[in-house]
Amino acid sequence: MPDQGVTTSKYVLGLDEVGLADAGSVGGKAANLGEMTRLKLAVPPGFVITTGAYLETMQESGIRSELYTHRVPDAVEAQLLSDQAKRLRGIVLDAPLPDAVRHAITDAYHRLGDSIRVAVRSSAPAEDAADTSFAGIHDSYTNVSGDDPVLDAVRRCWASLWSERALSYRAARGYGEEPSVAVVVQTMVPSDRSGVAFTADPRSGTREHIVIEAARGLGEVVVGGQVEPDTYTVDKDSGALVDMHLGAQAFQIHSDSVGESREEIAPDVQRQRVLDDRTLRRVAELATVIEKSYDAPQDLEFAIAGDDLWVVQTRPITTLGMSVQRGPIEEASPSGVLATGLGAGPGIASGQVRVLTSPKEGDRLQAGDVLVAPMTRPDWIPILRRAAAIVTDRGGITCHAAIVGRELGLPVVVGARNATSVLTEGQMVTVDGNKGVVVAGADSEDRILTAPVTPAPTAVGVRVGQTGTATAIYVNLASPDTAEDVAARAVDGVGLLRAEFMITEALGGKHPNKLIEEGRRDDYIESMAEGVGRIAAAFSPRPVIYRAVDLRSNEFANLDGGESEPVEENPMIGYRGCFRYIREPDLFGLDLDVLHRVRQRFSNVHLMIPFVRTRWELVRCLELVDAHPLGQDRRMLRWIMAEVPSVTHWLEEYARLGIDGLSIGTNDLTQLVLGVDRDSGVCEDLFDTMDPAVLATIDLILDRARAVGMTTSLCGQAVSSAPALAEHLVRRGITSVSVTPDSVEQTRRTVDMAERRILLEHARIGDRPGE
Asked: Taking 90 as the threshold, does the pLDDT of residue 648 lie above it?
C-alpha cells in the first residue's frame, strides 16, 4: 500500500493513523477509510482534516455558539428554510482560517504531491453509521488541484453542514448533537469504471447475495442517480451470477490530468456489460472481505483504473433493520401497469402523481403525493419527506436518493426511464417498491416499512427488553418530530430528552422568561407539553427521561429576550442546571408544569435534574418539586445527571433524598475531572473520556450508585464510538446506555458482544476443576 505521507498534527491525520474508534473526531467516512487502510486494502492515499479544525475555526471566528444553538424546526416553511440555510452557509464561508489550520492542511496536501489532483470529501461524525448514512447530504469535490482550491473546497464542505438538505436530514433523523464535520482529502483515481456494492440485498434484506451496480467513468453518475447503471446480483458463497440487469448509460464523466469532462458513449459500447465475469468476481471478493472484517453488511464504493481495483468508501447498510408487510397488491391487468423500473425501496403506497423536474417546484408536492422526477439528488431531501413514494426515470438501487428514500421508509422505484412522460399530474397510482412497478388506482391498504426486525436472542437464549441485551439501550432525543420513527426501532426508551432544543423548535427561539413577562406562560406549557406528550405516546410504556432545560447563560443570551443574561467568562461551569433552578423558581416551574400536564396522560415520563454540584442545592430544588402538584405524584422517578465529580461524595445523601437514578454525562464529567473546557480548541488534545482518571471516576459513581440501589445510565456518543468504553461499562454493571438514534444499532452490537464475552468468561471459570 502507498504510504499516506502525513505527519500527525492537531488538525490533520493520515488515513493510516485513524480507525473506527476515531469516528467522533474524523467522521464516519474517514474512520472507515482508515480501517480499510489498516487492513492493507487498496485505498487511495490521503489524509483527514479533523472536526477540531472546523470547530476551532468557528470558535475563533466567534460563530460557534450561534451555530450550536441554531435549530431549524422540522416542519419549517420552504422559503424560511432556504433563507436560514443561505445565511448559515454564508457565515461559515466568511470565517477566516486560522494560520495553524491553513498550514496544517497545505503541508499535508504537499506531502501527497505537488499540485496533485485530489478528491475533497465531507466526513461527518454521524455519517456512514449503522442507522444513518447521510448519503450525499454533505458536499464533496473531485479533481481539485492547488493550495487555494483545496482550502476553498474544505470551506465549502464545512458550509454544506448548514445546507437545506443537511438541516432537513438532521431534523428528520432526530440528530441533536452539535453538528461538526471532518474532511477527507485523497488522491484522485482516474477511474474508467466504478460503482457500488451491497453485501446484502437492500431491497429484500437477504444476506445471501451481493448486489453490485456499475457504470463507466467516475462513480458520481451512479451514486448521484444520473444514469441507470448495470445491476448484478451475485451469490455470496459460490460467486455465481444470479441475475443481471443491463442499464442505460449514454455518457460518462472522465477524469484526466486536466480535469473532468463529459463524454458520449458509443451505442455499441452502451449495449455491452460494464463488468466482465473476472472483474465482477474481484469486486464481489473485495466486498466479502470488507463485510467479514466489519462483521456486518456493508455498502461500499469502488473505482477501477485499468486493472487496479480501489475501494473509496464503505459504511454499514442503514436499511436492513426494517421489515416489510409484503402482501402483494391485487393482480392488475396488463393495461393497469403504467411504469416499470427497479424496486429500490420496499413497501407499497398510493397517492396522486406530482411530476417535478427541479427541487424549486417542491411547493407543489403535498403530503401524501407520489413524487415523480427525472432523478432526485440530495437537494431534494426537504421534499422527499412529504412524499408517499418516489419514482424516477433514472438511477439505480444504490443511488443517494434510493438510500435516503429507504431510510425514510418510502417505497421507491428507480430507472423507470419514461415515468415523467407516462404518469400524469394528479393521477391516482400505487407504487410497489418490492416489484418495481407503478399501477393505476389506489391500493386498499398502504404497506410501508414501519417495524424493525426482532433482534436475535442473547447468548443465554433470553431476550431482555427491545434490544436483545441485558443492558438497556436508550436513545437521546431532541425533537418530537422523529419520535414515532425512532420508537419503532429496537430501543428500550428515551434516556435523555433534551428539553432545551424544543424551545427553539416549538417556541420560535424565545427566552422562556420573556414569554412569562408577556403573559404567555400557558402558551409555553401547552406547546412543550404537546411535544413531550407526543414522545411519551410514541414510546409508551417505555420510559422517557425528561431533562429540565439546561441552556447555559451564553446560549440563553442568544434567544429572543436573552439580553438580561449574565456575561460569564466560562458559562460551561457557570449559571446553569440545579443552581439556576433554585435562583429562578419560576423558570424551573415551567418544566414542572409541563411534566405535570404530560403525566396526567402518560405515566412513563420522569424528571432528571442536570448539573447538580452540592447536597444543599439539590435539597432546595427537590423542595420546589415537592411544593408543586407534580411532587405529589410518587410514581414519577427522580433522576440527576452525574456530570460533576462531587457526585461521588454525595451519592449516598442523594439516594436518601429520594433520587432513583443517575445518568453520567461524559462530556461534562471529562472536562471537570481533567480541568479542560470542552469548548476550548486550544486544549482539545487533553480532552479524553478514556483517560484513566475519568474511567476511575465513572467506576466510583457506578459502584456507589449500585451500593445504594440507584439505577445507572450513561448518555453520550463516547459509548458508541469507543467499544472499549462500552465493554468497560457493561463489566461494571451499568443499567443502561443512551445514544443518538443513528448510533443505536452499533451500540447494541457492541454491548451484545461485551455481554457475550463476559458470559463466556464466567462459563470458563465455572468449568475449571475445583471451582
From this structure: yes
